[in-house]
Write a structure and sequence with these properties.
- It is a single chain.
- The protein is of the alpha+beta class and 209 residues long.
- It is built from eight helices and four strands, in the order ααααβααβαββα.
- It has helices at residues 3-17, 21-30, 35-56, 64-76, 93-104, 109-113, 132-139, 174-200; strands spanning 81-89, 125-126, 150-152, 155-166.
- The protein has a four-stranded antiparallel beta sheet.
- β3 (150-152) and β4 (155-166) form a beta hairpin.
- The protein is flat and about 70 Å long.
- The termini are close together.
Length: 209
């Protein structure tokens, strides 16, 4: 890692803790670390990541058995997915309520909101990754339901449940499951191989480009 790498890492640490760099060093000194020893800690973290990226991560392969095992773990946690259409309303809540009323009176949702969103089936989303304001009403909503307008991040949204929350087949969540399985295997490979890699590459600021 280079001196610039370490400086950047120290700034990132300070940002995480909500401190200036000098305040961070002061906290380190209060815990018995010198400025240089703290920089060495940061260098070690960054070197670990370089070692993982260069040597461990490329060797990770996810098999069908890994996917099935992670999918079963998903199901054991009671995870569900849902397909939604969300449409931001550029107007007051009264306008959003009027649009919902039109849908509930029989006008197709995509016609009410303009139709551009309906070119493709929305991808399934894990319910537990949705904002609480959205996840709570979605859990009990049937397919085809248009929810009451929901305020999210200072905006008003219309929410149409294309497919109700359900236990997903592997094909529906393959990308999410593969990501989880890959990260687990990467972590395991990191644990197994990092000690050996460290023994071969000492921590020296400026040692790696």
């Amino acid at each position: 890692v280079t001196d610039d790498d370490v400086e950047r890492g120290v700034r990132e640490h300070a940002k995480v803790f909500g401190l200036s760099v000098q305040e961070l060093y002061a906290e380190a000194r209060a815990q018995g670390l010198t400025e240089q020893s703290y920089r060495d800690v940061v260098a070690r973290e960054m070197l670990d990541q370089k070692l993982v990226d260069r040597c461990v991560a490329p060797s990770v392969r996810v098999t069908d058995a890994d996917l099935e095992r992670e999918h079963q773990a998903w199901l054991a946690r009671g995870a569900q997915v849902v397909r939604l259409r969300l449409h931001p309303v550029d107007g007051p809540i009264a306008q959003a309520n009027a649009m919902v009323a039109r849908v509930r009176a029989g006008t197709p949702f995509c016609q009410v909101v303009g139709g551009w969103q309906c070119a493709a089936l929305p991808a399934p989303q894990p319910v537990d990754t949705l904002a609480p304001e959205l996840a709570t009403p979605v859990r009990g909503a049937a397919s085809g339901t248009t929810l009451d307008p929901i305020a999210l991040s200072g905006m008003i949204f219309l929410v149409h449940v294309v497919e109700a929350a359900h236990t997903p087949a592997l094909s529906e969540v393959r990308r999410d499951v593969e990501s989880l399985a890959r990260e687990q295997k990467r972590t395991a490979a990191r644990r197994e191989g990092l000690d050996a890699l460290r023994a071969q590459v000492p921590v020296v600021v400026g040692a790696l480009p």
